[in-house]
Amino acid sequence: ELKVEQNPLFLSMQEGKNYTIYCNYSTTSDRLYWYRQDPGKSLESLFVLLSNGAVKQEGRLMASLDTKARLSTLHITAAVHDLSATYFCAVAPQGGSEKLVFGKGTKLTVNP
Amino acid sequence: ETGVTQSPTHLIKTRGQQVTLRCSSQSGHNTVSWYQQALGQGPQFIFQYYREEENGRGNFPPRFSGLQFPNYSSELNVNALELDDSALYLCASSLRAIGVAFFGQGTRLTVV
User: Fold this and answer.
1) How wide is the angle at C-alpha B73 spanned by C-alphas B43 and B34, nearest 5°?
2) Most Cβ neighbours (<10 Å): which of A20, A55, A62, B101?
3) How many CA atoms lie within 13 A of B78 on its CB side?
4) Which residues in chain B have Cβ-Cβ distances shorter than 8 Å to A96?
5) Using omega within 30 degrees of 0 as the cis cutoff, is the peptide bond preceding B62 cis?
6) Dihedral angle at the C-alpha atoms of B61, B62, B64, B66, nearest 10 degrees?
7) Do B56 and A48 touch (CB under 8 A)?
């Protein structure tokens, strides 16, 4: 059974600092996603990572995937308050299934 | 805006009642998945529909059932509501086995 673990679960950081959120998963996967969720809102897609070594960047966020280590990272550069949200990684099991298994999420708070 | 719409946005029901939640998928998407997100947790996969057929189910009891219609919209039905069914229910649409699942804004169900 596929399990997805994120850490840390809570992250409080100052504006301007850098940090990394980690996502480990337990079995081979086809795809890995990163989503953002603001309080009381739905999930916003940030990145889709499809292959080993994939790296994607959007603004201050950069995501990477190491399929051999079954690890994805979401790196935050020079954080700003607007990045405060909960970030989820989600993994699609190998075989083309659309069933996504989510981590518990990382609640990020960026303080001025 | 993802183009995935859910109704209603909020709902309060009494334990033992039945509820129907609705989802209109994004134009061109033929796959709809439903997720339950309890407070402070990551979404949990309930089931998926592809071309009006159930295509995978998570660890939810049979009182959770669904339908997909020819226009690819979908319903989630929950019978004999329990207090633990209180959660945010998210619908996601996608193109079969390709690309990103786009989430609707969710239905917040409270069972009292």
Assistant:
1) 15
2) B101
3) 27
4) 97
5) no
6) 140
7) no
How many angstroms separate the Cα of B13 from the Cα of each of B20, B39, B83?
11, 17, 10
Strand order in the sheet with B19-24: B5-7, B19-24, B74-78, B64-68
pLDDT digits (tens, 9 = 90+) for A70-104: 999 999 999 999 999 999 999 988 776 668 899 99
pLDDT, tens digit, for every residue of B76-102?
999 999 999 999 999 999 887 556 788
Q: What's the token pair of residue B79?
A: 């019978």
Task: Please give the pLDDT value at position A60.
Answer: 96
B34 φ, ψ (degrees, to nearest 5):
-115, 140
Q: Confirm if B23 and B75 have CB atoms less than 8 A apart.
A: yes
Could you tell me the two tokens for A103? 């981590």
| B47 and B56 Cβ atoms separated by less than 8 Å | yes
Q: How many CB atoms lie within 10 A of CB B9?
A: 11
Residue A96: name the closest of B59, B62, B50 by CA: B50
CB-based contact B7:B108 (threshold 8 Å) = no
* B27–chain A nearest CA distance, Å: 17
Q: What's the rounded Cα separation, in Å, for the pair B57 and A39?
A: 27
For residue B65, list its beta bridge partners.
B77
Give B-chain residues touching A41 at CB under 8 angstroms.
105-106
